[in-house]
Batch of 2 targets.
Target 1
Amino acid sequence: MSGVLEDGAHLRQEEVAERFHVSQTPVREAFRRLEAEGLVEHAPNRGVLVRGVPWTPPPPPLTVLAQRWAELVEDPDSVPGSDWP
């Protein structure tokens, strides 16, 4: 998630285990969890491939303000502790 590994990078279980001085069992389990979260993909005969973190840009600030304003107009009580009329 830090961006150290590029999308499409190959991960070898043996190399990861050696790098972190652990057995291959926890690495294999970590790969399974990452695959379940969609961050890596197990490719037959290719190993584990980094899929990357899906990222979408945030909405423009004015869009967010307009949406929040509309919510406040419809439901003034949505602001806790507010004295909105």
Note: The CA atoms of residues 69 and 75 lie 10 Å apart.
Target 2
Amino acid sequence: MERTDKFWILILVLLTIALRLVFAFSVEEVWWDSGVYIGMGKYLFSGGESGLWEHIRPLLVPVFLGAFWKAGFDPVLFGRFFEILLMGGVVVLTYLFARVWFSSRVAAIAALIVSSSPIFFHLSFHQYTEIPSVFFVLLSLLLYARSRPALSGFFASLAFLSKFPAGIVLPIVLVAAVFERRWKDIPFIVAGFVPLSLAYFVWSWIAYSSPFATLFSAREAIGRALGCNVLRYRPWWHYGYLLVFSESKLHFASLIGATVLYFRRRRSYVLLLLYAVLPIVYFMQLHCRDYRYLTLSIPAFAILTALGVVWLFELLVGLKRPGLQRVLFGAVFVLIAVWLSHTAIRFHLANANAPSIAEREYFSFVDQVPAGEVWVANPVISAYSDRLLNKIYYPIYDKGVALSFSDYLGKNRGRISAVFLDNCGGGIICPPGDFVCDERTESLMGFLDNNFRRVFDKSSGRCWYRVWVSAS
């Protein structure tokens, strides 16, 4: 590695981590999926005596969070540190990946764009799968580009176990290998991918009677989720809009970068182009076009954007007087860093929501209920308690789940110590037009009022939080 590369990597990592640590201790909100992954980690490392379990989720992030919890650390705070550390790794890998083909200037701008991405910045404070999966995707791509096919396949399997759609990195490197005629690498890529992924599929077969049960169930849940298909339903071109108008207008320069690649026509660029296009094509065909899904391709577009920016810079400044050129590039880098960092911080502050007092009390109330089964409509409770939790909302709350829980409640009333319901997390919100579900939910709360004691009932704005405990 050249001295220039070491300089840029050090600057970028320090910027990435230091800027995030400024906010790391002030974030109070725990998101729905974070609660799930924390609960799954506790479940794994307690032998099923704590937390909760959702079989449609990938396992890698829960394993890390559960390990923190088992070691005596707060999985919320240390999970946040884990995300920030991996984000530093994503920036380094973006730089190194860009450096395979382009100059240190292109690599530095690309890594800066990723470091200051609004969605990456915001996700750095939440225990989600996006940053870990992108880390392993980039590592897999970089190792392939550096002719380490077996390791590329291995880290592709870790990407898949971090976030199932991130497994698309495997066809990316395989297609690139075919296009580049690297026939001998293909068996090594597959051999690297197989051990961990095969172990996962065997476990799924044993636990759920099908090697692909978790994948099919996860896809079905996404296809039916209210948040995905109603609240966050967007047109097919939405990711392009987000890339330019939410990430940065600097990404207009990616069109210049793509044009530069076209005229250079190097076979090895296929890897970069596949990485930019295939994940977007996959996510575009889903109704759920969530902003965070864009993260999988952001490093690729950042490289194309950086290539366009540097091409314009060198065209305008000229190739003579390298000393002056270095000074001017440093000034451009600082200006872009200030612009993008300001955008990222503003986005984070606009979307950071501290839980209300009622919400915090509700999440923490579980440790005050007597021994027995605890049923919840919100998995965030698992971040506040080590109790074993049963899920009312799973996999998708509708009239069938409402009826199933009502029947269970009637037949097993003596085993249940507490039921936690709220209307803000989304756990008991019925699909639009499912009036039977609405009626059954009202009937369920009526049954709870008649047969249990309501011991917690608070509101904050439009949100209400209620807890019933056994009347005996």
Note: The chain has two domains: 3-351, 357-470.
